[in-house]
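Aim 2 progress update. The chain analyzed this quarter is reproduced below.
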Amino acid sequence: MTTTAPPAPSLAITLRIVSIVIFSFLLFLAIGLPLAILPGYVHDDLGYGSVIAGLAISIQYLATLFTRPLAGKLADSIGAKRGVIYGLFGCVACGVLTLLATSLQSVPGLSLGLLIVGRVILGMSQAMIGTGCLSWGMGSVGMQHVSKVISWNGIAAYGALALGAPLGVAMVAGLGLWSLGVAIALLGALGLALAWNKEPAPVIPGERLPFHKVFWRISPFGLCLLLSSIGFGAIATFVTLYYASNGWPNAAFCLTAFGAAFICARLLFAGTINTLGGFRVALACFSVETLGLLLLWLAVTPQMALVGAAMAGFGLSLVYPALGVEAIVKVPPTNRSAALGAYSLCLDLALGITGPLAGAIANGFGFSAIFLFAGLMALAGLGLSALLYHRALRESKDPIKT
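Predicted structure tokens:
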């Protein structure tokens, strides 16, 4: 007599994770829709320079940066679900403000001001939803699946960006600028409808470290993440203007190539983090990302730039979960959301500083120089990751000194 083995829980766990990271998908779809439109809108339609165009994008990430400590504290103390709901309300507000901003193009100062306020609110929402989804997912499926939660959250986020950029271009071409604000508000409303009655993750009781101590413990890993994320910030903010400066069409597909390669890498190789270890995976990823960014710098055709963007996305894909797994063990369980918030804060800092800094580089040396700078930063991240790996190996061989 034969018996049928019970089904493996892997699919059920994946489905549970996906049911939570769907909120990251909705958020980043709202972020992605205007991503290929707003730099040109601020630069060309409103008449501001490339630094202001970069700031209009990067201000969102700066807002996320300053909200991360609060987002982590809320998730640890009152629950991740509530933080996600707060963020979805912010997404709705951003949509309304974006609609008003694009309706007042004839008053450039007011239009820019409303746009920036909306992006600040969206940045705060990103902190709440991003940290909340990770914490909610870990609380629902357990810490043994932390790399899976982080990987699927990234797939949802970058998949939404890859879809959102060309969709936003098509919407504006077919319907007009007003459609961006309406779509962002509707995405937030849909998220609220899905999240409202969903089961929350339990809150872990116990003493919690101050945020600055949590940040200090994960800061070396966060610095690596920062260096890796400058490439994404450069592509997301300036690839449309880079294409335009070369007279190339279809810049939005460069963002799609980045996002598609990012997703493929996570789907194909996320399991290598558990088998090979976070540091080894991070070293390989940094190498690929560096080559991709340098290829973007040297591109002489849009096809060459597309390949470079895809390589950069493929390389960046597993840096976050690979080093995140190494970072999160540095804090007690009661501070895991704060640790994720502190770790992600470094990503926000990278994206926040990239816009104005890369805009200044573009003013002085041209848009292609932005990607040389980003490639050199990724190379520095490779070196720092190698040092951290060497230190971890040394500590594992001599645990008494640690």
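The CA atoms of residues 65 and 348 lie 5 Å apart. The chain has one domain: 14-401. These observations will guide the mutagenesis experiments scheduled for the next reporting period.
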